[in-house]
Amino acid sequence: MAEKLKVELVTPYKKVLTEEVDEITATGALGEFGVLPGHAPFLTSLKIGELSYKKDGVISHLALNWGYFEVENDKVTVLVETAEKADEIDLERAKLALGRAEEALKKLNPEDKSFRVYEAALERALIRVQVAGKGGRR
Questions:
Q1: Residues whose CB is less than 8 angstroms from the CB of residue 78 and which lie 6 or more positions away in sequence, other chains included
Q2: What is the pTM of this model?
Q3: For 89-127, what is each residue's pLDDT tens digit?
Q4: What whole-number distance in Å separates Cα of residue 44 and Cα of residue 78?
Q5: What Rg, from alpha-carbon coordinates, does the chain have?
Q6: In the prediction, which pLDDT does 2 show?
Q7: Does the structure show a pLDDT above 60 at 72?
Q8: What percent of the chain is modeled with pLDDT above 70?
Q9: Sign of CA dihedral 59, 84, 138, 96
Q10: DSSP characters over the chain
């Protein structure tokens, strides 16, 4: 059994992460899950959420926006729309986006066409604020 997982995290614009890590935790469509070396192969979808990984005792956090997560032979491939490391998130900008989404949702009802758009924006902003608080700029 391997002692490390090789993880590659890619967006349509760039490769965000290539590391050998000890463990990974992510937010799947059905809830949070963890992966250790030797994990059985699987493929799942990811929702807006956090991905964290531990390398040499240090935990790093990223905010993700929708995608897929695959494990095969101790290699983890993560394909997502966007990914931001905690220290790259502009916390003030994330808080402003959170406020805008909250205000927009107060004026809409669930039947409005824009409701889901602002609901997703709210979810993204919340995750960005949470992840930034775990090691980002303040």
A1: 7, 8, 9, 10, 17, 26, 46, 51, 64, 67, 68, 69, 70
A2: 0.82
A3: 888 888 888 898 888 888 888 888 888 888 888 888 998
A4: 10
A5: 16
A6: 64
A7: yes
A8: 96
A9: negative
A10: --SSEEEEEE-SS-EEEEEEESEEEEEETTEEEEE-TTPPPEEEEE-SEEEEEEETTEEEEEEEEEEEEEEETTEEEEEEEEEEEGGG--HHHHHHHHHHHHHHHHT--TTSTTHHHHHHHHHHHHHHHHHHTTTS--
In which residue are the tokens 């993880």 written?
A: 7
What's the one-letter identity of residue 54?
A: K
**Residues in a beta bridge with 46:** 28, 67
Whether the per-residue pLDDT at 136 is higher than 70: the answer is no
**What is the pLDDT, as a whole number, of residue 133?**
83
Q: Which two tokens stand for residue 5?
A: 């997982």
